[in-house]
Amino acid sequence: MQIVREETRRMLRGMVPLTLIAFGAFVLAGCEPVRAGVSLLLGACYSLLLFRMIGKSAAKAALFPPAQGTRIVRRGYFFRYVLTGVMVFAAIKTPFLQPLAAVLPLFFPKVILLWSTVVRRKGG
């Protein structure tokens, strides 16, 4: 679990600038600042929660035999998938949320992981 906490903190450090950049882009595009800001914050918090849930599921699965570990990971994946569907549906249906701003942070972990891989390869 220590690795999960460390990686979640690292993910948070990467999400803050991406969220600020996205907020600036939404404001420059003419979106309401409060609506875009709240949507981005909710999306970023949800994305961070998903990342932590993945790590906890993997850490838990490593403690069990392979067959049982696979079931744990699959169950966690299904639960996160359904939860994400509910979140996207709520972002679309809730009038106060900006759907694109709420969904965009779901892609931030992939961007952060890709960026960290590229930087690490270049010796950074």
Q: Biggest sheet: strands, sense, closure?
A: none
Strand content: under 5%
What ranges have pLDDT less than 50 throughout 5 or more consecutive residues? none
Beta strands, count: 0
Mean pLDDT: 92
Q: Which structural class do you get from the secondary structure elements? A: mainly alpha
What is the straight-line distance between the termini? 26 Å
Instruction: Return Rg in Å.
Output: 16 Å
Written account of the structure:
The chain has helices spanning 2-28, 33-61, 66-93, 99-103, 108-121. The longest helix has 29 residues, at 33-61. 19% of the residues are buried. Helix 1 crosses helix 5 and helix 2 packs antiparallel against helix 3 (66-93). It has five helices and no strands. The protein has 124 residues and is mostly helical.
Summarize the structure.
The chain is an all-alpha fold and 124 residues long.
